[in-house]
């Protein structure tokens, strides 16, 4: 009669028996003698009696699900609230930058180059004499759009391809794995120089497309791995034994249990994609002036960091806050989807 | 004549800090093992049997673990007062441990010969060649066929039973006075379990070692132990010579366990089942920890922690009503 | 024996061993199940015992159609279910359900208990009308001894024994005729094992279930089974009623297995005769010729290497009858009493 191969340690995964067990047991003890199975079954049920601390007594009971529980959890999580507010703000200024910065980001006055803050221009001027505040606000649009869309594209493509390959296995999995290997071998910067230099359009779409093209194998590999792990659990076998369809197994049983690492990698990747856009712009193959983006401003300001640090500080600060907000959001969502952490 | 006492654990308390509060894993454990004696420590998961052993060996994870009270005397010397370097010298050389999962207890990238030989290199300053020879000798001793060839193999190349033999060989390497075996056969099949237990018992007799056998299997205990200590919720609830416990348990928990196991030799009717669940270590019931599951519980059990009462015949029981329990 | 609900003939499952990444070629096979015959009567319990790697879990997975056999047939009510697919297979699944070994991995940690136990009704909507499902789930939880108020909890909020009850409730939801239980209590603590075994016995009576109870613990199997099959290296080597197998074993492997079980009685230590088998179970990729047990058998002779012993009543007992006359795949079968009688007081 082997025990489960778990280390015999105080088991923090059994908090349920702690809280209200006592009350129920006190009641049960007096009544129950050397009971049989029925008796004991009832007793064990009773010993689980304690209502969850959060549950309002007598409230009409609703059937809950992972998603509704996760949402309830998120609404109470300050990390989520703060990061969601920051992201909301970013989205608003990305759509409507003139709401808080009425100036023209392309209106520059060389006479004021590298000047510090002054009234009406709280962030000062950059090397070209443009208003840093206006440029930072207007730069949010390209940077956030590139970051979010590239991440969305990479995640969608990567997790669908990787997830399906992991789930079905076989020849397609083999082929896909080899393809991802090939993509991994392409150096990002060199690839960018080659691929993007032939494109003359000065819109964000080639950049997004390039990032998706080179980024999906990373996500696909993560998704494939976590789907393969989740697939092996007995609960997937149990669902199969019940006659569940492959789509049900994939969506109900595997996806929720495989999504956590994908979220983590995707949110971290978002920051690197915004930075990658900046790198490409710096190399002259991404966006080109007169486009406004944090990347362009950061690369333009970096040579003059000693004379005019503020011109570098503000766009890079904005970039850092954005990346942090998305990582925090990803963390909060991942935790909310794990019932064990509730 | 009582044999020389090797290990004495006195009033040991161990706590763990967890997210749900402080888990009281060990709450006042006393036991003693003499030379040539086998003490079985019996308990379910979470009873504190392994934590006690880890504290004795000095391999407890601190933090989150913490020894809050008690003494661990090895040949009269309090191990808890020693410096880590001094304890290291005792560990392996004078007391050794055998783990349940031999595959994860052995290093997968070193050959078993290297791992066995390392003991001699580290503790005895043997040369590599000498160490290799001693490793072969040890593998012979635990009856691994073709030891001289297999000494170059890696752990994964051995079967479960053979790996457990290598673990035993490793524990025996420096001929320690005391061996602590934590569920040594739980992961093995019955036929292999029988081989390994036989080997362990035989070596113990041969070397007159003290053996602390940690297990949840009442059958294994009956087969090899001299004395038994039954643990529940971090305490010893009953300790006695092994024959007496099976004849007439002096604690209702022991009785419940004995009655709840199905028997090989008869079909039997419905099994007796101890009701309820073992308590959470973060919230151990007041009074006797077993009272919520005990068919004999009365008011006093809910309020007063039972001491370890002396029971005639070199036994002890932590039950207020041990007399009634003995009478059945 | 009662009218059979499940008949298994010549069941074989080989897993090919392959090499290469894109262009695979077969280099051998793991012969996990290598010709198994079984009969399960209505409402009875068939125990299957064996050591790890003997193929008993593969048999379980084959019985519930989680795997397709390489050869052989599984007849449910006379119909071979091994070739079924789609709708027809789904219909059969309603009647053959499974309980898993590990209560920690067999429940989806991201589903509530209500969703887990109610999922069978979502997959088989015809089994219960939509409005009825929540009530049914609560009933099921009550039947297995859990508090129906806990439908919104997640698996990790329960202990191992309670999780196993949830798994049993899920298995019961569609009112199957047969439940295949693969080591359902071996991951549980001793005091909780008895609770779950008792529960399974009670449910069998209440719902008229037939169990295939697979375990390595011989005592539990004896306790719950009407008939027992002993497996070794992908085959059943001996089968009979519980008394026939435990009190009158004729196959040397069964005898060794029984004699190796530690008996919870220190008095038996002295007069217990134990058959210690040497060596390990051979690899299922490389099964010995003839009798597959011969490499560890103390009775093995030349004939054992040449001739595969059939699973039938050995000739020596055929005329005599009695409890020793049951199927045993050994050329040199003889009765040997290995289980010590328990006269433990109390």
TrEMBL record, chain A:
It comes from the Bacteria. InterPro entries: BP-dependent_transpt_permease, MetI-like, MetI-like_sf, OppC_N. It is a multi-pass membrane protein. Belongs to the binding-protein-dependent transport system permease family. GO terms for biological process: transmembrane transport. Signal peptide: none annotated. Its main location: membrane. This is Peptide ABC transporter permease. Keywords: Cell membrane, Membrane, Transmembrane, Transmembrane helix, Transport. One of its GO terms (cellular component) is plasma membrane. The chain crosses the membrane at residues 79-96, 144-167, 179-198, 204-223, 258-276, 312-333. It comes from Streptomyces ruber.
TrEMBL record, chain B:
Residues 9-258 form the ABC transporter domain. One of its GO terms (molecular function) is ATP hydrolysis activity. It is found in: Cell membrane. Its main location: membrane. Transmembrane segments: none annotated. GO terms for biological process: peptide transport. It is a peripheral membrane protein. One of its GO terms (cellular component) is plasma membrane. Coiled coil: none annotated. It holds the Pfam family oligo_HPY. SMART domains: AAA (SM00382). Keywords: ATP-binding, Cell membrane, Membrane, Nucleotide-binding, Transport. Belongs to the ABC transporter superfamily. This is ABC transporter ATP-binding protein. It comes from Streptomyces ruber.
From TrEMBL, chain C:
It comes from the Bacteria. Belongs to the ABC transporter superfamily. It comes from Streptomyces ruber. This is ABC transporter ATP-binding protein. One of its GO terms (biological process) is peptide transport. One of its GO terms (molecular function) is ATP hydrolysis activity. InterPro entries: AAA+_ATPase, ABC_transp_ATP-bind, ABC_transporter-like_ATP-bd, ABC_transporter-like_CS, Oligopep_ABC_C, P-loop_NTPase. Gene3D superfamilies: P-loop containing nucleotide triphosphate hydrolases. Keywords: ATP-binding, Nucleotide-binding, Transport. The lineage of its organism: Bacteria, Bacillati, Actinomycetota, Actinomycetes, Kitasatosporales. Residues 6-258 form the ABC transporter domain. CDD domains: ABC_NikE_OppD_transporters. It holds the Pfam family oligo_HPY. SMART domains: AAA.
């Amino acid at each position: 009669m082997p025990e489960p191969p778990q280390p015999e340690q105080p088991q923090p995964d059994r908090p349920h028996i702690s809280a209200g067990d006592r009350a129920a047991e006190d009641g049960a003890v007096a009544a129950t003698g050397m009971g049989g199975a029925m008796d004991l079954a009832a007793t064990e049920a009773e010993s689980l009696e304690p209502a969850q601390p959060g549950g309002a007594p007598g409230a009409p009971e609703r059937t809950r699900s992972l998603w509704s529980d996760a949402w309830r959890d998120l609404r109470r999580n300050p990390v989520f609230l703060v990061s969601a507010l920051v992201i909301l703000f970013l989205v608003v200024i990305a759509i409507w930058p003139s709401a808080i910065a009425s100036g023209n980001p392309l209106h520059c006055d060389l006479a004021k180059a590298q000047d510090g803050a002054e009234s009406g221009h709280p962030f000062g001027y950059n090397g070209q004499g443009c208003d840093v505040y206006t440029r930072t606000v207007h730069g949010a649009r390209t940077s956030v759009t590139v970051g979010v869309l590239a991440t969305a594209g990479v995640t969608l493509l990567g997790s669908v391809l990787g997830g399906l390959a992991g789930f079905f296995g076989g020849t397609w999995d083999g082929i896909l794995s080899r393809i991802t290997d090939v993509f991994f071998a392409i150096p990002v910067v060199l690839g960018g120089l080659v691929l993007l230099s032939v494109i003359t359009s000065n819109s964000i779409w080639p950049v997004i497309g390039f990032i998706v093209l080179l980024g999906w194998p990373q996500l696909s590999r993560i998704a494939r791995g976590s789907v393969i792990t989740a697939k092996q659990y007995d609960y997937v076998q149990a669902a199969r034994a019940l006659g569940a369809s492959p789509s049900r197994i994939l969506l109900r049983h595997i996806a929720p249990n495989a999504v956590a690492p994908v979220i983590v990698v995707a949110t971290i990747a978002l920051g690197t994609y915004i930075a990658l856009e900046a790198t490409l712009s710096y190399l002259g193959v991404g966006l080109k002036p007169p486009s406004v983006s944090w990347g362009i401003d950061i690369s333009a300001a970096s040579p003059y960091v000693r004379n005019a640090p503020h011109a570098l500080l503000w766009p890079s600060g904005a970039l850092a806050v954005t990346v942090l907000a998305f990582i925090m959001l990803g963390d909060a969502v991942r935790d909310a989807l794990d019932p064990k952490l509730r | 004549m009582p044999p020389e006492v090797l290990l004495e654990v006195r009033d040991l308390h161990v706590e763990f800090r967890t997210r749900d509060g402080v888990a009281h894993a060990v709450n006042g454990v006393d036991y003693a093992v003499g030379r040539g004696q086998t003490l079985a420590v019996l308990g379910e998961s979470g009873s504190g049997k392994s934590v006690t052993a880890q504290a004795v060996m000095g391999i407890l994870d601190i933090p989150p673990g913490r020894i809050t009270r008690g003494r661990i005397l090895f040949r009269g010397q309090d191990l808890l007062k020693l410096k880590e370097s001094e304890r290291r010298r005792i560990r392996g050389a004078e007391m050794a441990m055998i783990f349940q999962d031999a595959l994860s207890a052995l290093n997968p990238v070193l050959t078993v010969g290297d791992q066995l030989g390392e003991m001699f290199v580290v503790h005895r300053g043997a040369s590599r060649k000498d160490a290799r020879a001693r490793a072969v000798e040890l593998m012979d001793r635990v009856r691994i066929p073709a030891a001289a060839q297999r000494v170059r193999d890696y752990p994964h190349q051995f079967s479960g039973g053979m790996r457990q033999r290598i673990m035993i060989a490793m524990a025996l390497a420096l001929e320690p006075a005391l061996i602590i075996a934590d569920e040594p056969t739980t992961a093995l099949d019955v036929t292999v379990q029988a081989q390994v237990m036989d080997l362990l018992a035989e070596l113990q007799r041969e070397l007159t070692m003290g053996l602390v056998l940690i297990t949840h299997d009442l059958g294994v205990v009956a087969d090899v132990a001299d004395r038994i200590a039954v643990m529940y919720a971090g305490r010893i609830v009953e300790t006695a010579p092994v024959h007496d416990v099976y004849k007439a348990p002096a604690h209702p928990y022991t009785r419940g366990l004995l009655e709840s196991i199905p028997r090989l030799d008869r079909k039997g009717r419905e099994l007796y089942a101890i009701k309820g669940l073992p308590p959470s270590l973060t919230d151990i019931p007041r009074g006797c920890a077993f009272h919520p599951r005990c068919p004999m519980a009365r008011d006093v059990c809910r309020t007063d922690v039972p001491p370890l009462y002396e029971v005639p015949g070199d036994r002890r029981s932590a039950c207020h009503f041990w007399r009634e329990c003995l009478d059945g | 024996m009662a009218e059979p609900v499940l008949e298994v003939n010549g069941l074989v499952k080989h897993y090919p061993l392959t090499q290469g990444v894109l262009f695979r070629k077969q280099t051998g096979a793991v012969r996990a199940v290598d010709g198994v015959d079984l009969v399960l009567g209505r409402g009875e319990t068939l125990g299957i015992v064996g050591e790890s790697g003997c193929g008993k879990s593969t048999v379980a997975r084959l019985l519930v159609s989680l795997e397709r056999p390489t050869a052989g047939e599984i007849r449910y009510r006379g119909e071979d279910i091994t070739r079924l697919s789609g709708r027809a297979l789904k219909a059969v699944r309603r009647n053959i359900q499974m309980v898993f070994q590990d209560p920690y991995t067999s429940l989806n940690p991201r589903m509530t208990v209500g969703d887990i136990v109610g999922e069978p009704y979502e997959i088989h909507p015809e089994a219960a009308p939509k409005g009825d499902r929540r009530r049914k789930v609560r009933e099921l939880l009550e039947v297995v001894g859990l508090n129906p108020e806990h439908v919104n909890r997640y698996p990790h909020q329960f202990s191992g024994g309670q999780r196993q009850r949830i798994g049993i409730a899920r298995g019961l939801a569609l009112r199957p005729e047969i439940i295949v239980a693969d080591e359902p209590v071996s991951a549980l603590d001793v005091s909780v094992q008895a609770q779950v075994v008792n529960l399974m016995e009670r449910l069998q009576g209440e719902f008229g279930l037939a169990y295939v109870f697979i375990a390595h613990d011989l005592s539990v199997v004896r306790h719950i089974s009407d008939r027992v099959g002993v497996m070794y290296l992908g085959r059943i080597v001996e089968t009979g009623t519980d008394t026939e197998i435990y009190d009158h074993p004729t196959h040397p492997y069964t005898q060794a297995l029984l004699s190796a079980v530690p008996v919870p009685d220190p008095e038996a230590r002295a007069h217990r005769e134990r058959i210690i088998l040497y060596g390990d179970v051979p690899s299922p990729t490389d099964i010995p010729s003839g009798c597959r047990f011969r490499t560890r058998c103390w009775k093995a002779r030349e004939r054992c290497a040449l001739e595969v012993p059939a699973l039938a009543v050995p000739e020596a007992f055929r005329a005599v009858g009695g409890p020793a006359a049951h199927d045993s795949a050994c050329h040199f079968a003889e009765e040997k009493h290995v289980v010590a009688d328990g006269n433990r007081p109390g």
